[in-house]
Amino acid sequence: MKTLLYLAATWPEPASSAAGARSLQLLSLFLEAGWKITLMCAADKRPHSAPLPGGIDTLPLSLNDSKMDPVFSELNPDVVLFDRFMLEEQYGWRIAACCPDALRILDSIDLHCLREIRRKALHENREREGKDWFCNAAMRELASIHRCDLTLLISDAENEILTRELQFPPSLLTVLPFLLTEQEQHAWEKSPPFEDRQGFISIGNFRHPPNADSIQYLYRTLWPNLRKRFPEAQIHIYGADITPAIQTLHQPQKGFRVHGRAEDALEVMRKARVCLAPLRFGAGLKGKLLDAMLAGTPSVTTPIGAEGMQGSFPWPGAVETDPEIWVETAIKLYQDKNTWNTAQNCIPQILAGRFNRETFRVPFMQSLERCQSPEHRFSPDRISGALLQHHQHRSTEYMSRWIEAKNKGKSDSGL
């Protein structure tokens, strides 16, 4: 039986973020293939942490602690999966020393550095440039990708950026988007019709900077214009980890209602007529827009929102950049039944064409087998990663050992 060691930054919370749902989908692929899984997480469980599927063992994970070394050695997994590049930075050198034969996989979730680069360009009112990659965030994440045997990208758009723009070897990357079962692909068919829905909706975890920015932009720029043209309009804002800045936007007299966490995102999405997602920066795939499709709810978003999701299929709603057109389109989609039905009918094409679990399951497992071969692990594509493993991890290791020694000194002195 093959074994997987899954190192997680947080316990999966599918009700709070798309990343949590993606983690459970990924774990299910390994379980279905008969793998034995051990999940280790340094964070504490939260009230909304999801129960893990049966058959997964769990162990505590400590930071900067050499006591982890014998644990890793005893597990001796075939594959180690880091669910964010920060985990690879923290533990990659330990895994390389304790489990030298283990295949190291990075699940990027989304390209954090691309998100940060786009945020900076937006705030400087300019387009993204090639020089933007020469920043600390990119150096760290791209180095982590190089050091791993394989990196999972949730978006084919990000795969294109890495291979074409940054010349990453395609053999180091594979695309694994959100994975929907046959039943999930047809969930939208049971959603309420146009007449039984009321209000606009926007949803997303507010710890995620693109979500917080989109709500602020919606409130300050788009919503006043929309309400001027459609005075009866109401929007309901949902999201986990609400901040005081977002809470102050709760203005019922303006039709802008902030509710905080939705216990069931699909339930509130099904009640709304149109989902609004004016994302101005970000990366990866947008779970809120996938939820909208699963709920049968048309959406109005931006090219950033639809990136990696739409492919060659028509969007179930609209993708716009101009604020005036954005507002006009949202109102028409909300008020015109024929326009709304036409948009909703685009949903099954995207769900089946872009997120069918069976389309990606077998190729993913085949990519694991390919990466375990000597031809891959000792190919010229891996030279850059080996160099970084040799040099860069030295500094990471020494910093970790210094922190451990410092902490031990405090403990011994009673501080």
Would you summarize the structure shown here?
With 415 residues, the protein is α/β, with parallel strands linked by helices.
3D architecture notes:
By secondary structure, the chain is α/β, with parallel strands linked by helices. It folds into 2 domains: 3-179 and 357-405, Glycogen Phosphorylase B (Rossmann fold); 182-354, Rossmann fold (3-Layer(aba) Sandwich), CATH 3.40.50. Helix content is 47%, strand content 13%. The protein has helices spanning 18-32, 68-75, 85-98, 112-123, 136-147, 156-165, 182-185, 209-229, 244-247, 265-271, 287-294, 303-306, 323-335, 337-344, 347-354, 357-371, 374-377, 383-412; strands at residues 3-8, 36-41, 56-60, 79-82, 103-107, 150-153, 173-175, 200-203, 235-238, 256-260, 274-277, 299-301, 317-319. The strands form 2 sheets. The protein has a 7-stranded parallel beta sheet with strand order 3-2-1-4-5-6-7, with helices on both faces. The protein has a 6-stranded parallel beta sheet with strand order 10-9-8-11-12-13, with helices on both faces. Helix 12 (303-306) links the parallel strand 12 and strand 13. Helix 3 (85-98) crosses helix 18 (383-412) and helix 5 (136-147) crosses helix 18. The longest helix has 30 residues, at 383-412. The model has no long low-confidence stretch (mean pLDDT 93).
